[in-house]
Amino acid sequence: MTKQDITEFVKPLIIDGKLKEACQYLTDYTNGIDKYIERDLLIQAGIINQHEREHTNKLISKENYNMALAQARYAITQILDRLPEQGNPVADALNSATDQLTNILFLSANPKNTSQLRLGEELRKIKDSLAASTYRHKFSLSSESAVRVPTITKALQSQRPEIVHFAGHGIGEEGLIVENDLGDIVKFPTAGLDRLFKRFAEHLQCVVMNACYSKEQAEVISKHGIYVVGMNKAIGDKAALDFSVGFYQSLGEGNDYEFAFDMAMVNNSVNRKDVETPELWLNGKVVQL
């Protein structure tokens, strides 16, 4: 395995805060090749374990714990530059991890007698953002258009996605708008959405509802331990597109959902009327970033 291979593999682990895993993979890579790096990795692993114990036993504050992890993250990142160009093979672990794709299911609905949205363009921009990203090989994107309730339930059961993206219309407390066989409006009530996503909470990580007035659904669904993006009022087409580009661009660079939401909000900051429209929810509360 080469330095570039192992670096690309462990960087997302470091970003996600999985520092002990990163140390272990780097130790396997340098085992018997560079004793000085092995020693430094052992020291960092020991520091991380110590602070985890202290945090668990409430011997240090959360602020000091986060500061210690940030220092460890920096130290491990510095070690990446010192890695030998060739190391031990850790291909089995790497291949196993890269086989675990993040599956994104894009759902859209724009029934007759509703304002026409640029849903096709939104899908294309998401595809382009992921295709141009560093970790594009770790994502799989599938889509269903003109969705009905049975379309959604079937897709969730057959595909088991980690991310669900809904693009369309919301109607506040009443739910989201989908279609029937004739393309007419059908209301998918909040209670039904709650019941649906509760069943998939074990593997579902994030739901993006790029739909007007969808904060009520975001609050309810997020209570199942799922990150949910919802809109607290109507959102314009351009703002919805800009937000999506920023969000998936950031995920494709190995960032977590909170970081990706922040980058999406930066992209959306040019749309003054919609600057504060998207919200990120988790456990029934707005995430304060």
Task: Describe the 3D structure.
This protein has 289 residues and is of the alpha/beta class. The chain contains 11 helices and 9 strands. The protein has helices spanning 3-15, 19-30, 35-56, 62-82, 91-98, 119-131, 149-159, 190-199, 215-222, 237-251, 257-268; strands at residues 102-108, 139-144, 163-170, 176-179, 185-188, 206-211, 227-231, 278-282, 285-286. Strands 1, 2, 3, 4, 5, 6, 7, 8 and 9 form a 9-stranded mixed sheet that branches. Strand 1, helix 6 (119-131) and strand 2 form a beta-alpha-beta unit. It is elongated, with a radius of gyration of 21 Å.
- In the predicted model, the low-confidence regions spanning at least 5 consecutive residues are none
**Succession of helices and strands:** HHHHHEHEHEEEHEHEHHEE
Number of domains: 2
Q: Report the sheet with the most strands, covering strand number, pairing sense and barrel closure.
A: 9 strands, mixed
What do the pLDDT scores average to? 92
Helix content: 40-55%
- Strand tally, please? 9
